Amino acid sequence: MTATQGGEAGARGHILVVDDELSMREYLELLLQREGYAVTSVAGVKAACDLLALDGVDLVISDLKLGTGSGLDVLRAARARPGSPEVVLITAYGTPAAAVGAMREGAYDYICKPFDNEELRLLVQKALEKRTLRQENTGLRARLFPGLDGAVGQSARMQAVWSLVEKVASGRSTVLVTGESGTGKELVARAIHMRGSRAARPFLPFNCAALNEGTLESELFGHVKGAFTGATHDRSGLLVAAGDGTVMLDEVGEMPLATQVKLLRVLQERKVKPVGSAAEIPFQARVIAATNRRLEAEVKAGRFREDLFYRLNVITVELPPLRERSGDISLLAGYFLSRMAEELGRPGLRFAPETLALLERYPFPGNVRQLQNMVERAATLSDSDLLGPSTLPPAVRGDAEPVARASEGAEPGLGAGFNLERHLDDSERRYLLAAMKQAGGVKTRAAELLGLSFRSFRYRLAKHGLTDDLEPGAPSDA
């Protein structure tokens, strides 16, 4: 093992070179040292893994073939480390197929022998830029809310939410997470799971609105062979399969009444009865329910069982809509843009001040998810690293509105021939079309933008005759 470092060499990054040919190791050491990097070189997999275990490596450059070992072993060891270094693989000329497969396992890139020095310099620079961006990303998340990866928000409302998450994470009580579509209910459920003793166990999210009654019960409670057509073997439901983990029942307000009765008994008894079976099976999983509906109103309307509501509503975590915490918009936009910059390999991506100002004034009916989609769209379509107002949708810029609004204080024109129902239907239809356009034809995303369940959104499309062939080529589902 040799190490080469001079003066400020470590400031640019520490590179581990792995190659069983001494001449290649010495060549790469000299080349990279001249560029100002700290370089350590080793000949085999074991020495590389030993060094990676000590941390402090920013980039690994490894030959794919290492005598009796493989660069893939080095890659896997690097990926297993917290804050894993980027990995570039060197492969023989004309045989890049294995290296491409390694990229699917997480390698940053590969380079073929013989390679050009400038090509290698650029590849090293880009790989280290990506790592720096990833580290800054992690630091931003930790600074905005220590201990909850992916949670961004420093407003008083969100700090109260995350404080409650910390308190309930260690218990086993059922938690009900409420909030409009796109506010981050699954993120909160995952945070509760990850902050508690169940973090190493499975987290299984399940959408209660996505399946019919029979399939819903089979997925949750399991079934036995022969219970219905196609049941060719016994199958454990999610509540049992999760073990000591967590099951998230998303859109629980959409669950059919008959299934609600069975779920209530399951939660009370902590046992499930698989479809077609007379035997009951105990389960240990924690249950977290989520809904964008006001379940109290659903109970009054007879669409949700009161006893199940009280069983689920042991602890409630209510997420505020983004319009009520506009101070978090710039932070969230910066967080999403840093992720896109890393994904696209464009570390220079940034917002123009006027772009952030427009975002901060927009009400975001689709909440955080809508903001994330806007940032992704802007970063992907922009030719420049500076994202100006033109990268935002027209509605955000104020160039157009999906529905014409009457000016404040002005009364609508009423008179002979006016029909309120028709006007309401026209407005609803325009909103549906606008949401479908903004969501690129993806119905589940359009439903989220409007704050509707998928089932309700699909019903309204049918009501207005907006069939799948309305927008040729658009996807009809999620």
UniProtKB/TrEMBL annotation:
<dbReference type="GO" id="GO:0043565">
    <property type="term" value="F:sequence-specific DNA binding"/>
</dbReference>
<dbReference type="GO" id="GO:0006355">
    <property type="term" value="P:regulation of DNA-templated transcription"/>
</dbReference>
<feature type="domain" description="Response regulatory">
    <location>
        <begin position="14"/>
        <end position="128"/>
    </location>
</feature>
<protein>
    <submittedName>
        <fullName>Acetoacetate metabolism regulatory protein AtoC</fullName>
    </submittedName>
</protein>
<dbReference type="InterPro" id="IPR011006">
    <property type="entry name" value="CheY-like_superfamily"/>
</dbReference>
<dbReference type="InterPro" id="IPR027417">
    <property type="entry name" value="P-loop_NTPase"/>
</dbReference>
<keyword id="KW-0804">Transcription</keyword>
<dbReference type="InterPro" id="IPR003593">
    <property type="entry name" value="AAA+_ATPase"/>
</dbReference>
<dbReference type="GO" id="GO:0000160">
    <property type="term" value="P:phosphorelay signal transduction system"/>
</dbReference>
<dbReference type="Pfam" id="PF00158">
    <property type="entry name" value="Sigma54_activat"/>
</dbReference>
<dbReference type="InterPro" id="IPR009057">
    <property type="entry name" value="Homeodomain-like_sf"/>
</dbReference>
<feature type="domain" description="Sigma-54 factor interaction">
    <location>
        <begin position="151"/>
        <end position="380"/>
    </location>
</feature>
<keyword id="KW-0597">Phosphoprotein</keyword>
<dbReference type="Pfam" id="PF25601">
    <property type="entry name" value="AAA_lid_14"/>
</dbReference>
<dbReference type="InterPro" id="IPR025944">
    <property type="entry name" value="Sigma_54_int_dom_CS"/>
</dbReference>
<dbReference type="GO" id="GO:0005524">
    <property type="term" value="F:ATP binding"/>
</dbReference>
<keyword id="KW-0067">ATP-binding</keyword>
<keyword id="KW-0547">Nucleotide-binding</keyword>
<dbReference type="Pfam" id="PF00072">
    <property type="entry name" value="Response_reg"/>
</dbReference>
<feature type="modified residue" description="4-aspartylphosphate">
    <location>
        <position position="63"/>
    </location>
</feature>
<dbReference type="Pfam" id="PF02954">
    <property type="entry name" value="HTH_8"/>
</dbReference>
<dbReference type="InterPro" id="IPR002078">
    <property type="entry name" value="Sigma_54_int"/>
</dbReference>
<dbReference type="InterPro" id="IPR002197">
    <property type="entry name" value="HTH_Fis"/>
</dbReference>
<dbReference type="InterPro" id="IPR025662">
    <property type="entry name" value="Sigma_54_int_dom_ATP-bd_1"/>
</dbReference>
<dbReference type="InterPro" id="IPR001789">
    <property type="entry name" value="Sig_transdc_resp-reg_receiver"/>
</dbReference>
<keyword id="KW-0805">Transcription regulation</keyword>
<dbReference type="InterPro" id="IPR058031">
    <property type="entry name" value="AAA_lid_NorR"/>
</dbReference>
